[in-house]
Amino acid sequence: MASSSSLGPFSPSPPSLIPVMKEGECRNWAELPSELTSSILRRLDSIDLLENAQKVCTSWYRVCKDPEMWRKIDMRNSGNLGLNLETMCRHAVDRSKGGLVEIDIWHFGTDSLLNYIADSSSNLNSLRLAICSLTTTDGLTEAIVKIPLLEELEVSYCSLSAESLKVVGQSCPNLKTLKLNREAFSRFHYVSDDDALAIAETMPRLSHLQLFGNKLSDAGLNAILDNCPDLEHLDLRRCYNLNLFGDLKKRCSERVKVLRGTYDLIWDYPYDESVICKETYQDPYSEYYSYDSSSDSDYSDYDYDSYYNDDVYDPFKKKMASSSSYSPPLSASVPQLMKREEPIRNWSELPPELISSILLRLNSIEILEKAQKVCRSWRRVCKDPSMWRKIDMYNDGDLGSMGYDLEIMCRQTVDRSQGGLLEIDLWYFGTDKLPNYIADRSSNLRSLRLIMCYPIADEGFVEAVAKLPLLEYLEITYGSLSGESLKVAGQSCPNLKTLRLNSEPDPKFYDEECNDEEALGIAESMPELRHLQLFGNILTNTGLTAILDGCPLLEHLDLRKCFNIRLEGDLEKRCSERIKELKRPDDSTAGHPYGFNIEDLSGPRGYYWDEF
């Protein structure tokens, strides 16, 4: 057998190989290779890294300071964190040490920040600005001219004029992807080809273009097609001035590999309808962006020269901190486990409940494919049945590119729950056998969500749901189940309180197609219902009346896109008096989680545009 020296002096052992430990031994934090730690931490966004991960221990803090961790900065947030995100973002840019390649900024930012990024990151390839209400077109233009290597730019619901777009194209000759998303005005169709002409004149290398809600006309689109010969992906959703018919439609179909038309669905669009479809836009989060020192908001913990200053951990600074003339602002807030004099913590000292708290942020696929492979202690936590009380098999539906079988993976998670499974969400996959496998091993199941699980049919569903008597929450979104199956569900699950039955509505045929089978199945078998969502159902007033008669406890009723319902007279009065929260057929689809928007359904006739 060759000795280890036969590998040569320049062939070190792979860093990912860790000696096998004997039973009872404890692993030291320092023994986890830094590349594995960084692989874990890169799954978090930049806010989580700064606010949470770097505070865990010295080794994690060391990894979080590595410039490689900041080649991409992801500052996505919901807009209401109450943090000084601009200060945090600047600090993240500093940590990249000029190596920043991608940055995403949501719900905050000023012109000063954009220029700070550009001055510090001349190699930036991707810039994404979403709902940054305080940035101006001049500030963005000033920053863009400093990043000539930019290949991808998204400006969603921010200020950017056509003239600035032209500067972008001239300054960034390698630009291949542009996403310019604006509010979709469905009522007042004024025309402007300024954006389109600026793109056509200055961006010949574009391959991906998204113009959500733009005011361009056929002339502007033709100019883009004339001058962007490499264009392969074109998204024109909510561009209401376009008429994609005849020669123009033929030209687009022949030239563009992936074309999204004006009325195509927006299920994959990342922004809430409250933003994308309004006649005037008022940023609801602007109150969080004020940097006025007189503001009542207390950002003292995030002072740029204190809280996120790396020098806090410098020995000289610590020496200075001991003098009476210097009082570091972090003296009370830095966790004890991060101070340098602390001994290195080993894996066994991190409580399992903390590890599980971290891992529960991931969905079930990520836990099986990533987290459990990190180390023995993480795998031990991942095998704990309490980690599998809820199984979330969320995925984007691109099953062919995943490289693994979701049904097999789901069965494994069910096995790990050891009968303790309470909630399960299935997306885009499943056979008739899978619901039965779940039901046979999870008789205590309380919540079942089947979302776009088209292969699961009546037979498999009925057989499974009959074994789930404790079920309280059932969602079937874009499935193919009959009213008879719903009746079996109601009869088998006497505690059912929430039913979400979402269909794909088509207003073009709603006058010709009516069916109360599902409504009657609900009315006859679900007397305990409190929440009922029938999005896009083809029930009539008769079916709705039957539901009101048969479900006396109903408090929340969602009838959006139920085009056969006529809420008038006594029926409207009865619904208003009985139902605490009523969503009518023509109410806005804001808040619907699967991307349906009123314009997806209305078509050129504009049946329901008056709601905006």
Automatic annotation (TrEMBL):
Top-level taxon: Eukaryota
SMART domains cross-referenced by the UniProt entry: FBOX (SM00256), LRR_CC (SM00367)
SUPFAM superfamilies named in the record: F-box domain, RNI-like
Listed PROSITE patterns: FBOX (PS50181)
Domain F-box intervals: 26-73, 344-391
Entry-linked Pfam families: F-box-like, LRR_6
InterPro entries attached to this UniProt entry: F-box-like_dom_sf, F-box_dom, Leu-rich_rpt, Leu-rich_rpt_Cys-con_subtyp, LRR_dom_sf
This protein's name: F-box domain-containing protein
Species of origin: Eruca vesicaria subsp. sativa (Garden rocket)
Lineage: Eukaryota, Viridiplantae, Streptophyta, Embryophyta, Tracheophyta
